[in-house]
Amino acid sequence: MKRKKILIVAGEASGDLHAAHLIKALRSKDPHIEIFGIGGKKMEEAGAEIIYDIVELAVVGFVEVIKHFRTFKRMLEKLLILLEARKPDVVILVDYPGFNLRFAKYVNEKNIPIIYYISPQIWAWGKNRIAEIKKLVDKMIVIFGFEEELYRTAGVKVSFVGHPFLDIVHSGWKKEETIHNLHLKHHSVRIALLPGSRRQEIEKHLPVMLKACEMIERQLPRTEFILSRRRELDSSVYNKIIESSKIKPHSLDNRPYEIMEIADLVIVSSGSATLETAIMEKPMVIIYKTSLLTWFLARNMIKIPDIGLVNVVAGKRIVPELIQFEANAKNIATEALDILNNDERRRGIKENLRKLKGKLGEKGAANRAAHVIIHKFLS
Q1: pLDDT tens-digit readout, 153-194
Q2: Beta partners for residue 269, in sequence order
Q3: Burial call 72-82: b when 16+ CB within 10 Å, e when fewer
Q4: Domain ranges for the chain
Q5: Nearest Cα residue to 333 out of 247, 238, 236, 273
């Protein structure tokens, strides 16, 4: 029997994580599937052959993408060579729409089925892209219920599988173990800092987070701060910023859930980490800053009142979000202190986060996605 081949493209840390779990689910159903493409360490550990590592692709924003044009051009050229040489039976695109939808046009010309897992956020900025997706993509596999309705109404073949974070997000350590490993006090107030997964996000967010922490510490001297770091990034990215700050946070590499578990509050960069924080049922303050030009361009394209995924899925603002000019130390500290000092507000946030979890479907998203792929495209 001919071995089935899958080409998969994930362009950033969250895509690498979701793709890795999908790869494991696919291999559990068919151990002989050959999987190769673009991704990171998690996909490689799951059994994919990585032909282009995503570390240098972790950029966001119009200006930043233009600066990395040559990188994207080289990546596209490698993928086109792969299409010809390896002739995959199916191509799976994971989020990363700016690149993936462009690549999809070339795949479509080869009459290779295209599956899109983790939908582009067209509901925020690009509903006009639905027509393009309908033409190029054979199957959308979505992780939010409202996305299923959006695509189905537009005539796109779609399946809702639930959110994969429901299987992924949990602490691997007991609370006491994390407190011991980080040498924390037992009765302190703890604030987790999640500045983002990309270098440029950390450079934008961590300095203002630490300045806010200085203000918080003046009001709550018993507060301890814990920084979630990515091992894949050069440690100097973090160290240079921390060296110039009065706050010297405790830190852990690649252990965000352990950090969230012991936190009373999370200050988090807008993105998928906000949903992870929600699943852990932790009160949060969402922030996001980008280059001025990117911000001015994006604000005219974004068609929804909130950009934090937690607020988008909830359909209303259930946690504070401070974007661009509002994301300053004073505002962050004010929101954080109000949540920490206001029992009623904190309880209300936690109740809304529990309701939000109910909108994310049931556990087993990657297995359901793998079932759709194998039975509709590889059987």
Answers
A1: 999 999 999 999 999 999 999 999 999 999 999 999 999 999
A2: 287
A3: beebeeebeeb
A4: 5-164+364-378, 175-358
A5: 247
Burial group, residue 173, by CB count within 10 angstroms (0-12, 13-18, 19+): middle
Token duo for residue 122: 């067209």
CB 336 within 8 A of CB 220: no
Are the CB atoms for 114 and 93 separated by under 8 Å?
Answer: yes
Tokens 């050959």 appear where? 34
**Cβ neighbours of 69 (radius 10 Å):** 9
Contact yes or no for 202/323 (Cβ under 8 A): no
- Alpha-carbon distance 39 to 53, whole Å? 6
> What integer best gives the mean pLDDT of the chain?
92
C-alpha span between 188 and 340 (Å, rounded): 12
pLDDT of residue 55: 67
What is the Cα 200 distance to its own chain's centre? Answer: 15
> Per DSSP, what are the bridge partners of residue 286?
268, 321
Strands (E), the chain: 5-10, 34-39, 49-53, 90-94, 114-117, 139-142, 158-160, 189-194, 223-229, 250-253, 265-269, 284-288, 321-323
User: In terms of CATH architecture, what is 5-164+364-378?
Assistant: 3-Layer(aba) Sandwich (3.40)
* Spatial distance between the Cα atoms of 137 and 316, rounded to a whole number of angstroms: 31
Fold that domain 175-358 belongs to in CATH: Rossmann fold (3.40.50)
Alpha-carbon radius of gyration of the chain: 21
Q: Is the fold of 5-164+364-378 the same as that of 175-358?
A: yes
Phi, psi of 206, deg, nearest 5? -60, -40
Q: The tokens of 55 are what? A: 């570390």
What was the pLDDT predicted at 62? 44
Q: Evaluate if residue 63 carries a pLDDT over 50.
A: no
Q: In the chain, what are the helix, strand and coil shares in percent, each to the nearest 5? A: 55, 15, 30
Owner of token pair 């040498």: 183
No. of helices (H) and no. of strands (E), the chain? 19, 13
Please list the residues that pair with 173 across neighbouring strands. Answer: none
